[in-house]
Amino acid sequence: MAAQNFDIAILGGGLQGGLAALAVLSQHPDARVAMVEAGARPGGNHTWCFHAADLDAHGAALLGPLVAQRWERYDVFFPNRSRTLHTAYAAVTSDRFAEVVEARFRASPRSALLTGTRAVSIDPRGIELEGGRRLEAQLVVDARGPERFESFERVAFQKFVGLELELAAPHGLTHPVLMDARVPQTDGFRFFYLLPFDDRRVLVEDTYYSDGPELDVPALRGEVLAHARARGFQVAGVAREETGVLPIPARSIGEPRAELPLPAGYRGGWFHPTTGYSLPSAARLALHLAATLGKSPFGAEWQRLRREHARQQRFFAFLNRLLFGAFRPEDRWNVLERFYALPEPTVSRFYAMSTTATDRARILCGRPPRGLSVRLAFENGATA
Ligand SMILES: Cc1cc2nc3c(=O)[nH]c(=O)nc-3n(C[C@H](O)[C@H](O)[C@H](O)COP(=O)(O)OP(=O)(O)OC[C@H]3O[C@@H](n4cnc5c(N)ncnc54)[C@H](O)[C@@H]3O)c2cc1C
Q1: Which of 37, 87, 208, 236 is the most exposed, fewest CB within 10 Å of its CB?
Q2: 338: CB partners within 8 A, 6+ apart
Q3: pTM for the whole structure
């Protein structure tokens, strides 16, 4: 079977693959883009959020059509501190993502979106599909998601069960609650996350920063419903459920690799080691691939991007070692409570992976959070 030729072939139509395709097709409407996705539609089953300050103007333009909801502020609650942060926060839903990506491919007759199609192999020149069909491209991108990190040395996991609830009466929330940690601290640092979509629809997630990957989904569903009822929500139904177990690495996972096929998205290490967010990094890489289409992506701008990404990653991996190595699981909330006392620009740059030397000093210096155990830190090699 003769191979089909493209400018760029992307394996994995999730967040990274879809953003790369959108970025390339908006900058080069005549480009030949192939994207292969095993699922029935691009994007899977997610609600991806980001802080508006995570993105520059190009990133904001890329994400704009995908945003299903935007709020101008958000709250955090801890036992001794509550705070409203005046940073905009936005949500991209899988449905909106799939609609926009599919429409973009429909408008590009030289491109091919292959959904419901599994690849059996990938190499620097192309992608081999089930059934023997082969796609070849000048640039081959591997965006198959987080699985590569399953065998990676890691300290912990961020895991959660979220239910999008339909309510019989308005919930009364006007903006998201990013963390409500005023709950029993079982299985590590635990908090609820609430995203109000409209006045009778809200996503409620029970989230854990935990030492192990086990996720008792039925039990956590019950916890979510109990939390919703405790807030006075009249639950009429569950519209959608999402679960996740994301690795939280203890060591820097190294600079993104300049190799083909190009490892991208979570698979390529383009994610925030502490929050597990990957949308901002995925947007930066997508824009870079679009800007360098037809040339090598590994030029001077790549060096700058990957060095900065790796420098930030090393810092966050160190924070992870401290959080998980120097505090007992039930004391870890103190670290986050102290973090949320920092100036708002520092909090924003923390999420955006653009911390400055001053931010890093603010995060690490000063009075340590309650519960810090020097003995545990040494036993666990947290400061190494
Ligand atoms: C439930 C959940 C919520 C999250 N929320 C946020 C958030 O709010 N903000 C944020 O920034 N990050 C969030 N993350 C983290 C991260 O952004 C996501 O995991 C993100 O989807 C990673 O993007 P990706 O493109 O690397 O991988 P994925 O989006 O997982 O995409 C990989 C795609 O590759 C496809 N694939 C894999 N193998 C093959 C194959 N052989 N053939 C064909 N297709 C294949 C898969 O079907 C999948 O669609 C969340 C993660 C989860 C699990």
Answers
A1: 236
A2: 367, 369
A3: 0.95
